[in-house]
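Risk register update: the risk of archive-format incompatibility is retired. Evidence:
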Amino acid sequence: MKLSASQLYDALVNDYGIIGETGNIKFTVKDLSILIKTKDSVGNLLQEWLKAWFTENSIDFVENNNSQSFPDFLLNPDDFTKGLLEVKSFDFDRGPGFDLANFDSYCNSLLTHAYRLDSDYLILSYQMIDGQIGIKNVWLKKIWELACPSSTYPLKVQEKKNVIYNIRPSVWYSTRSKFKPFNSKEEFLSALNNTRYQYPQTRFKNGHWLNKVLKNYEEYTGEMLVVE
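Archived output:
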């Protein structure tokens, strides 16, 4: 059964009712089982559970064999330029600490695979109390609905010793956040482009980056974006 990301979200949240449900992680060797109370493995196991849920519900998908590359799943086995789904999870009590994408890899990929702009992010927040994992909320977002500006760059990034590593998310669900998510993919692209101009390592090779991305996006989607 082929589902779009929004149809999948509806099936998971509204039909299956995952929000508010609980689970746990157990590890067994021979006749000794323990309940895992640390959070280190929760994200990976939630993704494994989702994969099993896809299979159980006969949802078409292709899993990325490289766990370190984007995306986690492809929901359209007939067209790998559509239905790209990235899965993220975080501890609700600590807030979103995941990366949206590696900065350099993402920028480079848009030159030839600009359709990645339309990828969906399925995000699960959880709380763990004494080994019991409760699903607090689930969101389906585009990257521009998660990314935001910052006080340092037009785009919030992870920077260490003046080197940008990753694109970081906003706290999109909070009304108290100082920096709000972008309103459109055009705003996001503008912030990404301006960050590349501001960042010394990409400043001098950024002259045609945006135009190349816009051209590639139009070639794949037929949509002409206008970015200020």
